[in-house]
Amino acid sequence: MLSVNKSNLKKLSCGILLALSLSTGCSLVSDHNANLQPEAFGTLTHDSSWYEQQVSESSPEFTYDWQILLARAYTVEGDFYKAKDIISQLRKNAVTPLQGNKADIAEAQINIRQGKYREAYSLLSAVNTMSLSNADSAYYNLSIAKTEEALGKNTDAAQHYIALSNIVTSAADKNDAISRTLIALSKSNKNDLIKGFKNSKTPYEKGFFEYALISQTKTKNQTNSAN
Fold first, then answer.
1. Is 0.70 surpassed by the pTM of this model?
2. How many Å apart are CA 219 and CA 216, to the nearest integer?
3. pLDDT tens digits for 92-113?
4. Which domains does the chain have, with CATH numbers?
5. Contact 167, 141 (CB under 8 A)
6. Alpha-carbon distance 197 to 191, whole Å?
7. Distance between CA 39 and CA 43 in Å, rounded?
8. N or C end of the chain: smaller count of CB under 10 Å?
9. Which of 112, 104, 110 is nearest to 150 (CA)?
10. DSSP 189-212
């Protein structure tokens, strides 16, 4: 009979596990870390079960933002009950206005997913954006712009898309924001465009409204000529 002592058995087991990890490309080390710093409204890269584990392992100073990400993951997965439960916890635990604003943005996503755009707009329009990070501000502007479009507030949506185009850094994201701006402006009436042009705070913003007014006038003239 083959005799294997405990030391050799342990080495053999470790060797097998190592070989398996190398052949499958899987890590035997958890990717959870108490000191991982979350971006509350950054891109979701995992499912809710991963975020649940990260919340439980997170350092206290990062827990709030990990809970935001967990609520967002539940929302994307359609588990609105769990998402709302997390939001309730967030509101109880919020100690700063910024944290309250983040909870509002996260809750608005639930309403958007459920088609409750007026409820979402009520939450988003009350957010103080001055304290948001660039990443959070980008997420906010995209969210409220989509909500405004759904409510027919196309000029307001365009202004938030313009703000978004000023925040994002990649060429693809900028082009997407600009495209969304032009689509929203194309659905705006002339009076709203004129008002938006007059109220524009920067030449960059004013240029979008000027372009929309020229395009609308040109289209109208072409239509009249055809008739």
1. yes
2. 5
3. 999 999 999 999 999 999 999 9
4. 37-139 (1.25.40.10), 152-216 (no CATH)
5. yes
6. 10
7. 8
8. N
9. 112
10. -HHHHHHHHHH-SSHHHHHHHHHH
